[in-house]
Amino acid sequence: SLRWSLSGLTALVTGGTRGIGHAVVEELAEFGATVHTCSRNETELNERLQEWASKGYKVTGSVCDASSREQREQLMEKVSSVFDGKLNILINNVGTNIRKPTANYTADEYSKLMATNLESAYHLCQLAYPLLKASGVGNVVFISSVAGLVHIFSGSIYGATKGAMNQLTKNLACEWAKDNIRVNCVAPWYIRTSLVEHLLSNKEFMDCIKSKTPLGRVGEPKEVSSLVAYLCLPAASYITGQIVAVDGGMTVNGFT
Ligand code: NDP
């Protein structure tokens, strides 16, 4: 039924060549959406675009460093021309991390994390707003982190960018409700991707993660993309301003 379909809708997913973004591109395409994505590595992007074309998914892409204001503007111009000035779905997925004790961060590291994780998402929302509005039914989903809800030893700048993203979700949900744009946020705990591969291959680290997680394991990208797609469906039409953890129960585990 139409309540459970994204057929005929258009989507921009940032950072779609690997990890969570890659799973989101495929999930939205499987629900019938036409998707545009971006990443910084042209070779990898073209490989993914070919794979998607052979699977029958409708996906286009451009090279874009989402931490650059100029490249974000170029990206949205491209999206506008590909989708005829209308966009139904914006998934702000790009994000990175540098893990250090707070006292050791340099000014450059602070700026890099802020630009990549927070400013990119904020500015893409600004740029997408006229397109989301023009589409008639808009949806924004932020990929935040449980690091924006609780302390998880992932570094304070990362936590601050994700905490800000969580609040941005609530502000935009209220501000843009009148334009029929819903805004929600997904906050994962450890998900097996290239971002955290080096951590998860360490047995002691993995044992520690498992001990904090009621479900006793890390998550897979598909376990995040399913919620992202759900939030964009007509079936979720009364859900806005929410931050949903995808964390195997970690954030409710209390003093165990
Ligand atoms: P990955 O590093 O595995 O994938 C990131 C994707 O984004 C790649 O396609 C990458 O391609 C692209 N990307 C990274 N930086 C940029 C940039 N500046 N401009 C354009 N594209 C970029 O990350 P994950 O899938 O793990 O993470 C995705 C999101 O999920 C992030 O916001 C992260 O904070 C969040 N998250 C992840 C968790 C995890 O455990 N994995 C847990 C909680 C949240 P390329 O490098 O070629 O540009």
Topology record:
Layout: E1 10-14, H1 19-30, E2 34-39, H2 42-54, E3 59-63, H3 69-82, E4 89-92, H4 107-135, E5 138-143, H5 156-176, E6 181-188, H6 197-200, H7 203-212, H8 222-232, E7 243-246
Parallel strand pairs: 1-2, 1-4, 2-3, 4-5, 5-6, 6-7
Describe this structure in words.
With 256 residues, the protein is of the alpha/beta class. The protein has 8 helices and 7 strands, in the order βαβαβαβαβαβαααβ. Strands 3-2-1-4-5-6-7 form a 7-stranded parallel β-sheet, with helices on both faces. It is globular. The protein starts with 9 loop residues before the first strand and ends in a 10-residue tail after the last strand. 43% of the residues are buried. The protein binds NADPH dihydro-nicotinamide-adenine-dinucleotide phosphate (NDP). NADPH dihydro-nicotinamide-adenine-dinucleotide phosphate (NDP) binds at residues 15-21, 38-41, 44, 64-67, 93-96, 116, 143, 145, 188, 190-191, 193-196.
Taken in chain order, the helices and strands follow as EHEHEHEHEHEHHHE
Mean pLDDT: 98
**Rg, Cα atoms, Å:** 18 Å
Individual helix count: 8
The strand order across the widest sheet is 3-2-1-4-5-6-7
Rounded to the nearest angstrom, the distance between the terminal CA atoms is: 43 Å
Helix content: 40-55%
- Strand content of the residues, in percent? 5-15%
What oligomeric state is this?
single chain
Bound ligands, named by name, code or SMILES: NADPH dihydro-nicotinamide-adenine-dinucleotide phosphate
